[in-house]
Amino acid sequence: MEIGLNHYLVLSTLLFAIGLIGVMRRKNLLLLFFATEILLNSVNIAFAAISHYYGDLTGQLFVFFVIAIAASEVAVGLGLLIVWHKRHGNIDLDHMSTMKG
Amino acid sequence: MFEAIAFYLFAFLTTVMFFIAVTTTQALHALTALAAGMIFISAFFFILGADFLGAIQIVVYSGAVMALYAFGMMFFDTTRDVKEKNGNKYIVFGLSILAAVLVVVIFAAPMVTNNIVALHPMIEGAGNTQELGMVLFTKYLVPFEVAAVMLLVAMVSGIVLAGKKMDLSLTLMSDAEIIDAKKEQHKKVL
């Protein structure tokens, strides 16, 4: 019953697949952002697990930077989304396919 | 033994929560499920001995990011059901192939790199936070500063994009002024 590195990698792959399903089937841009958060988190688990089982701190440092990048991505993305919603009244992905400026 | 029980319990809970987050048609349910999943993920960091990251995960993801999403959702119509994409067949096909290749690569990578050597090995007799600080402020100082500048840029851009007309306060204006402001807003949004 020893939990090894492969257990964490399986879990990470499973969560990444769930995130990919979300990216594929979502139309609402806000929920698409949620799916990207799931992708980032699944990768964070894999980094932390490899860091633990190889006795190396680099993985944890990368998780640290990924979290910082995710936080700034949310701030900029939500700002743009609010501006788009004020102008067009919806945040559906299909209406954004044409970039009229 | 307890590690195994904790791992399987939290793996199950995280998977269920994230599955709800990507399949539900209610935006508020998705937000709540995602926040719960974030907290459950921090449990993996604690099991793996990365205490600092577990705390950061709770503070940043469940605290800051989810609160930001909750505030952002006040601008959108969240009571409406979310429509789902019927899907471009080629995109779904391509991403499925990509996911399958990814699974193979993830399981092949540890076998290929069996002779991996720790670049920054764990320091004996230091706590997790101390270890991270020692490496972060020596080897990774420049990326750390760049990340700080990036967060500043994100904050400024968030204020510039979302914070228009925030100098007006509806509680301090008279009724006539509010009506004027509304008319002006209808004329030219933003």
Write the layout of secondary structure elements.
The complex is a heterodimer of chains A (101) and B (190).
Chain A: H1 5-25, H2 29-54, H3 58-88
Chain B: H1 2-23, H2 27-47, H3 51-73, H4 89-112, H5 128-136, H6 141-162, H7 175-187
Describe the structure.
Chain A is mainly α and 101 residues long. Chain A has a single domain (5-96), classed as Helix Hairpins. Chain A is built from 3 helices and no strands. In chain A, helix 1 packs antiparallel against helix 2 and helix 2 (29-54) runs antiparallel to helix 3. Chain B is mostly helical and 190 residues long. Chain B has 2 domains: 1-83, NADH-ubiquinone/plastoquinone oxidoreductase chain 6, subunit NuoJ (Four Helix Bundle (Hemerythrin (Met), subunit A)), CATH 1.20.120; 140-190. The termini of chain B are far apart. In chain B, 19% of the residues are buried. The chains are: A mainly alpha (101), B mainly alpha (190). At the A-B interface, helix 1, helix 2 and helix 3 of A face helix 1, helix 2, helix 3, helix 4 and helix 5 of B.
